[in-house]
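haha ok so turns out i had the wrong file open the whole time. this is the CORRECT one, sorry everyone. sequence first:
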Amino acid sequence: MRKVVAMVALAMAILPAMAQQVKYSIKGVCPADAKKVYVSDRVSGASVDSMAVAEGKFSFEGNYEKDALLVVKSDISKWLVVFFNDGTPVDINLNTNELKGSAQNQSLNYYDRQNDSLTMKMSGIQNQLLAIYNDKSLSDEQKEAQLKAKVGELQPEATKLTAAVKELMDKMLKESQNTLVPAAFVNDLYSLYGMDKFKELLAANPPYANHPALADVKAYIAQEEMKMKIVGRKFTDLEEADTDGNLHKLSEYVGRGQWVLIDFWASWCGPCRAEMPNVVENYGKYHERGFNIVGLSFDQNKDAWLKAIEELKMPWVHLSDLKGWKTVAAEVYGINAIPASLLVDPDGVIVARDLRGDALGAKLQEIFGE
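then structure:
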């Protein structure tokens, strides 16, 4: 009797897992000189299927996880066609990035093609700036001048494109709220709307809310919320070396009667360097009134670190263990992106984090007055 019960229990455990597998049926066309077509899971990266092709035609059948976001591509075509494995056959054209299938997948394909068009235009703008940045024939001063001029020239078009992407995503959400389609655009949505708005989107538990494609962003949000809880707590001590190689504890500078900005940065971090003039300006304005800064670098190359400190004219204390992203500072404070910062009061209590741009000056003005 026990064996029968055990077998029934095992069957009951297996059946739900089996029910999550649905048949996929994919056919289509690709470039005539393509040699192979691949099917993969966009979220996990797992290979699902592949086949050698001839004369630009392909056809697949098999079983895979229900509603998985799958990608079809050839070895040479520039397009990747994505669809949800919802059990409805799909007909794919890898030459034009077009798909025929369920209403859900056709909607996904429409918005994907529209988004690709806007993204390629935005990439064209970025490539123009990169061409100047990577031009070794230009001095740093010439690069700075040309980049400034080019940004001014391209900014109206970039603003227009950003607005177009926002309009497209707004439309997609309105029309596809009760489908899985938004899950395919999770990174675009988070980037456009930010954490609070993104959380609002998920609050009503729409069909896409629990799709695996959202796992990374949801984990990131959870991590960010945990980091926000650090506000109101005492700072955590750590030890790193200064620019001369001498070890110092953070507690030598923090919690000793001054307001201190713990600034997480690196010489190779473009946004960090862009923000630094603002930090320098506020340091100069408020240092004599009790404001200090401790820079914790995510550098690995000491020469680059020291050069950046000199170039950016950063006259405050600098510490680093030169371990890049494996630095103790990242571990202790859960830093996974820079620039980042913590503002600590004279008693060592963290009162704010990630104050940048006007927000830093406004907070310091609130503390010290004009």
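The longest helix spans residues 140-176.
again sry for the mixup
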